[in-house]
Automatic annotation (TrEMBL):
GO terms for biological process: methylation. It is found in: Cytoplasm. It comes from the Bacteria. HAMAP family: Methyltr_PrmA. Belongs to the methyltransferase superfamily. PrmA family. Methylates ribosomal protein L11. This is Ribosomal protein L11 methyltransferase. SUPFAM superfamilies: S-adenosyl-L-methionine-dependent methyltransferases. InterPro entries: Ribosomal_L11_MeTrfase_PrmA, Ribosomal_PrmA_MeTrfase, SAM-dependent_MTases_sf. S-adenosyl-L-methionine binds at T165, G186, D208, N251. It catalyses: L-lysyl-[protein] + 3 S-adenosyl-L-methionine = N(6),N(6),N(6)-trimethyl-L-lysyl-[protein] + 3 S-adenosyl-L-homocysteine + 3 H(+).
Length: 320
């Protein structure tokens, strides 16, 4: 089968948003080359036969990122490049800098896109106790405390390399004590739900508006036995969801967090926590003001580069 590759040259901060755009156009797979990925790789054994790989000898980006998506020829995606370019450029309205925001298309053989990203994606530690491992890698924990999250990044995003995902994982480690019920909004690859179960969360439900993301999350849940009880479904934020949980987690853009905040308040138990990430620096005040307006108390603010994570708590006794 003939495929068309669409590549977007962008910034590291816009990787997940660009991935979302490409998936919305019907991509059957996404690969990401991000200069930040190599910040996590050290010289060591990565190959299937124990080869030693020195990252300095592997060609890679030194800045920014390239997000590539793959479409069957029946999609006629080449005719939509100008439209895609406009959507990528419009990310500036959401506080993201997608520069250089260059979009191009080219034909590619079926077998090429399936393996093009494997050489760039290796096991890496996303926190003191959590390591994300590609599904095809035979990786053994280095200590009894190390927890493994196995992911297939081929059709998902949120594999742990982006600061917004790392901030979410930090917030989970700070908040979870064991047994909590949780809702993961905009689950993407499912990495946060899987991590929460490894940290001792109880009942976990994951939602995403994108059916492709839901399918990818289910696939990743199946790779991690601890996640077999997680329910995954398509839903627009928390519309129509009425349940009381201990935690709501959302790693999404600030403009999408804002309408989620009152929905989260309704679905949290008194004293429950809302964990948010995906907030670019100039949108922090928008989120903070919305939280306060809806009676949340901001208990922690985390920062990594230009990105913020926020932990907010619903009062133990609701305001009258």
């Amino acid at each position: 089968m003939q495929w068309t590759e669409v590549s977007v040259m962008t910034s590291s901060e816009a990787v997940e948003a660009v991935s979302n755009i490409l998936m919305e156009y019907g991509a059957t797979g996404v690969s990401i080359e991000d200069a930040k990925d190599f910040e996590h790789i050290t010289k060591g054994r990565y190959g299937s036969h124990g080869e030693i790989i020195d990252p300095t000898t592997v060609p890679h980006l030194t800045s920014g990122a390239i997000v590539s998506a793959y479409y069957p020829e029946s999609n006629h995606i080449a005719d939509k490049v100008a439209e895609l370019s406009e959507k990528v450029t419009h990310l500036r309205a959401f506080g993201l800098n997608p520069a250089p925001a260059e979009v191009k298309s080219s034909p590619v053989k079926n077998e090429d896109w399936q393996t093009s990203w494997e050489k760039y994606y290796h096991p890496f530690s996303v926190s003191r106790y959590l390591t994300v491992v590609p599904s095809w890698t035979d990786y053994q924990p280095k200590s009894s405390l190390e927890q493994i999250i196995r992911l297939d990044p081929g059709m998902a995003f949120g594999t742990g390399t982006h600061p917004t995902t790392q901030l979410s994982l930090q917030a989970l480690e700070m908040t979870l004590r064991g047994g909590e019920s949780m809702i993961d909004v905009g689950t993407g690859s499912g990495v946060l739900s899987i991590a929460a179960k490894l940290m001792g969360a109880g009942d976990v439900a994951a939602y995403d508006v994108d059916e492709i993301a839901v399918a990818s999350a289910k696939k990743n849940m199946a790779l991690n036995p601890v996640a077999k009880s997680i329910s995954v479904a398509a839903n627009d934020l928390l519309k129509g969801i009425h349940r009381q949980v201990d935690l709501v987690v959302a790693n999404i853009l600030a403009e999408i967090i804002v309408p989620l905040i009152p929905q989260a308040f309704e679905n949290l138990k008194p004293g429950g926590h809302l964990l948010m990430s995906g907030i670019i620096s100039d949108k922090y005040s928008l989120v903070a003001d919305t939280l306060i307006r809806h009676h949340f108390q901001i208990t922690e603010t985390l920062k990594m580069g230009d990105w913020y994570g926020v932990i907010a708590q619903k009062p133990k006794e609701e305001a009258s």
